[in-house]
């Protein structure tokens, strides 16, 4: 038999392999697109169901027919989705600070709103001698979201009511960055008391029970007004505190609390958690609900005891 | 008698098998490409429809409970031009008794989009609830 030689089989095999590779990649792309599309669809249904459950829980809680810890269930049969929502207790618990939810934390243009009087009647609630509150703010230096060049300063507005029925607005500007606050080009903010900005730890519960505390850490924690500011007279009733973060582009932690555990801020906030399910997917939502918040322009309004002369 | 071995023409069985297999693979792969492309386009259309639904739900929620009138209302979205023969509507009705108690100020919101994919009709629908004084209000 004559010896035969040639490369056609190898070439054919090469063509087969290349074609297979191209075809399989297109097929796998379509399979992954369909899988992602299906998951996205289920995710959206689960999210909408979770929102629906939150809405129903919010409604029930405003009518007083939802007790903390009780579950609210919602099912959309045709949409193949269902969700469960639950409300926490009214926060803060007695003697504990109230934390602005973190994440997401509070950004540069946001105000944290904290009631010091009863939010429904404005009756006196938190009025310790000296009329001080404790402010906790900033991401601690050992946290992954701390940045030295994003160290925050704060503006605190405390609104009080006099016995005559008039209201007063106290503003405190505090900056833990001594370089930024001092010097000829400094912002002239006051500095927090020495030692109060070395990472502060405090027990706060955001759950259904006061004992479900977590150790929350902040960059600074101190009482306001500080000794650099005029004290608030005991004859005045504390109404509310508004806190704004300055200088930081990053979201920061924030909490306001009583000067010690023998005093308490009024209950003012509910945390609602909802879990929506569709198919194999779950979406979880959390809502931080404060029933009464003053409009944001309050912080930018100019207050005057008399008419403001605009002719000058 | 003397036999001499001569030149042989023809194709071996192995060559036939290899060629058949090769052609078979090629046909299989080429035939699956249009189906794969169709499925990719289909999932993109479905994703677009869901985005439109999601934005509509957000917009309606922001309107607030008081501005949501019961009924079925057609709507359009600029993105719908990327779908073939699209039609969309949202339906608002009082929260069904299976979910909410009677008199509870909650409405059920259903947003629905239909479109054509080749010769088959496709649709996407999402349901949620909006209450008085609810999220974002």
Protein described:
The complex is a heterodimer of chains A (312) and B (137). Chain A has two helices and 14 strands. Chain A is α+β, with helices and mostly antiparallel strands and 312 residues long. Chain A starts with 7 loop residues before the first helix and ends in a 22-residue tail after the last strand. Chain B is an alpha+beta fold and 137 residues long. Chain B is built from one helix and four strands, in the order H-E-E-E-E. In chain B, strands 1-2-3-4 form a four-stranded antiparallel sheet, covered by helices on one side. In chain B, a hairpin with a 2-residue loop joins strand 3 and strand 4. Chain B starts with 12 loop residues before the first helix and ends in a 6-residue tail after the last strand. The model of chain B has no long low-confidence stretch (mean pLDDT 85). Classes of the chains: A alpha+beta (312), B alpha+beta (137). At the A-B interface, helix 1 and strand 1 of A face helix 1 and strand 4 of B.
Q: What is the overall number of helices of chain B?
A: 1
**Quantity of strands of chain B, as a count:** 4
| Mean pLDDT rating of chain B | 85
Q: Hey, which two chains have the biggest interface?
A: A-B, 43 and 49 residues
For the largest sheet of chain A, list the strands in their spatial order: 1-2-13-14
- The computed structural class of chain B is alpha+beta
Strand content of chain A: 25-35%
């Amino acid at each position: 038999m004559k010896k035969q030689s040639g490369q056609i089989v190898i070439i054919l095999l090469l063509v087969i392999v290349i074609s297979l590779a191209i075809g399989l990649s297109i097929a796998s792309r379509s399979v992954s697109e369909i899988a992602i599309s299906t998951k996205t669809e289920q995710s959206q249904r689960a999210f909408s169901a979770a929102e629906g459950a939150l809405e129903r829980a919010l409604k029930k809680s405003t009518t007083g027919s939802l007790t903390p810890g009780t579950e609210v269930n919602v099912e959309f049969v045709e949409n193949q989705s269902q969700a469960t929502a639950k409300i926490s207790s009214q926060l803060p618990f007695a003697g504990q600070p109230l934390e602005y939810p973190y994440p997401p934390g509070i950004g540069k243009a946001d105000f944290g709103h904290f009631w010091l009087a009863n939010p429904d009647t404005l009756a006196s609630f938190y009025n310790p001698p000296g009329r001080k509150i404790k402010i906790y703010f900033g991401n601690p230096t050992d946290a992954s979201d701390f940045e030295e060049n994003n160290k925050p300063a704060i503006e605190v507005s405390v609104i009080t009511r006099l016995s005559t029925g008039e209201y007063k607005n106290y503003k405190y500007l505090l900056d833990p960055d001594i370089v930024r606050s001092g010097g000829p080009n400094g912002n002239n903010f006051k500095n927090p008391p020495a030692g109060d900005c070395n990472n502060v730890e405090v027990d706060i519960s955001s759950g259904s029970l006061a004992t479900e505390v977590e150790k929350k850490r902040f960059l600074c924690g101190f009482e306001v007004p500080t000794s650099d500011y005029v004290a608030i007279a005991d004859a005045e009733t504390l109404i509310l505190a508004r806190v704004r973060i300055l200088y930081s582009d990053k979201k920061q932690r924030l909490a306001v609390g009583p000067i010690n555990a023998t005093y308490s801020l009024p209950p003012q906030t509910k945390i609602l958690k909802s879990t929506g399910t569709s198919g194999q997917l779950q979406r979880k939502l959390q809502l931080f609900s404060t029933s009464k918040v003053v409009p944001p322009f309050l912080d930018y309004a100019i207050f005057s005891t008399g008419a403001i002369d605009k002719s000058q | 008698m003397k036999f001499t071995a001569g030149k042989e023409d023809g194709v071996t069985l192995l060559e036939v098998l290899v060629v058949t297999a090769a052609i078979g693979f090629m046909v299989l792969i080429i035939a699956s490409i249009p189906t794969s492309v169709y499925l990719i386009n289909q999932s993109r259309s479905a994703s677009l429809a869901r985005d439109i639904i999601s934005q509509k739900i957000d917009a309606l929620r922001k309107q607030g409970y008081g501005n949501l009138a019961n009924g079925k209302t057609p709507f359009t979205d600029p993105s719908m031009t990327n779908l073939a023969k699209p039609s969309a509507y949202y339906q608002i009705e009082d929260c069904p008794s299976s979910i909410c108690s009677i008199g509870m100020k909650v409405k059920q919101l259903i947003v629905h989009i239909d479109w054509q994919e080749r010769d088959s009709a496709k649709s996407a629908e999402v349901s949620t609830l909006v209450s008085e004084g609810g999220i974002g209000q």
